[in-house]
User: Fold this.
Amino acid sequence: MRTLLAVDGSDQSYEAARALAHLSPAEQLIVLHAVDVPKPAYPMILPEVAQEIYTTLERTMREDGERLLNKISSILPEHTGPVSKRLEVGRVVEVILAVAEKEEVDLIVLGARGLGPFRELVIGSVSHRVLMHASCATLVVNRPWPSLRRVLLAVEGPQDAESACRFLALRPFRGPVEVTVLTVLPFAQPIWPAGVSDSEALKANLVKSARNFAWDVATRLTGHHCVATAAVAQGAPAVEILQEASRTKPDLILLGSRGHEGPTRFLLGSVSHAVLHRAPCPTLVFR
Assistant:
């Protein structure tokens, strides 16, 4: 598996680097820092002066970036795979996505919050936009990650299940994990108009079908370096996923990137948005 670690010098950026201890050794680990050099903001400044300021600032930021890459490399866990350091100039999100595509990486790892003006948010603007547009799996590290034993996998339907099985077949985690496969029936009482006598029977059939689906996914996953069980919940999907996470205390939440409408990105919906912003542990979005 080819992995891209994007760093910016924030505390959570360092936590993202340490998180590699829980991942299988990469075929290639790229440690990337993007330098977004601001243009002089004064329209009346002479062009040659503006260029001199820009050049000086770029040189300083490059030097700082090289020091950061060396520091991050020095704290990487053992046995992460061959490491290459990359410093690129450009808009941070565009650089991360471009390098990920060019190098055909399987996983992007980054911190949830950066050093920019949105650092107070649980999910920062850079990590959110990378999650929206990346063509590969993305791991967002939002806090220290001391262990990886329990994983909560939320799946909506067959497409999610196929993507989850395909990703876990890569054996992305360093050690065996226990996976809870959760599917949520997004309905509340009553789900049929009053007077429909067999609504309870229909609901029971839906619950049974969802349980069978979750168990089928769990059965398929068992053996991919994990042991899986199934769970079914009823209600608002984001609420139920977070409640299950609160109850089972997973070390990682896995989410699919697509919803039940095919090309509609699951990440852009309220469900994944709520989970990502309130997750009590790191979150990995697979595709």
